[in-house]
Amino acid sequence: MGRLDAVVLGAAGSRDPRALLTVDLVADALGARLGMPCRAGYASGVGEPVGQVVDDFRTGGAVTIGYASLFLANGRLPDRATEGARAAGAQVLAAPLSDAPEIATLVGIRIDAATRYGDS
Question: How far is CA 110 from CA 55, 96, 115, in A?
Fold first, then answer.
């Protein structure tokens, strides 16, 4: 399989617009890191469903679409998001982050920042 044309970042979803904005910012950062369009898609809540985002990319001309999971572990919502991506035709499906050592590093950084500066 060749280079991806676009990536959908799957997340849980929320009714809180601030939560959706946070995931949108992560999707923007991932797209910049990968050098391709990336949008958030959701398993629940009011955000746009994963499958719809895959369809939108396809309608916009993307041929090879990947799905990246923002979930930490397997479960009902990650499964729903992955299945939505698969059903809509995403060809590359990444598993939840799971036991990636970078997660522990990031949590440590966040704890350190909260200890030093307080939590915003």
Answer: 35, 20, 9
Tens of pLDDT, residue by residue, the chain (120 residues): 569 999 999 999 999 999 999 999 999 999 999 999 999 999 998 899 999 999 999 999 999 999 999 999 999 999 999 999 999 999 999 999 988 899 999 999 989 999 988 765
Q: Whole-model pTM?
A: 0.89
Residue 14's Cβ-count burial label (10 Å; 0-12, 13-18, 19+) is middle
CATH architecture of 6-117: 3-Layer(aba) Sandwich (3.40)
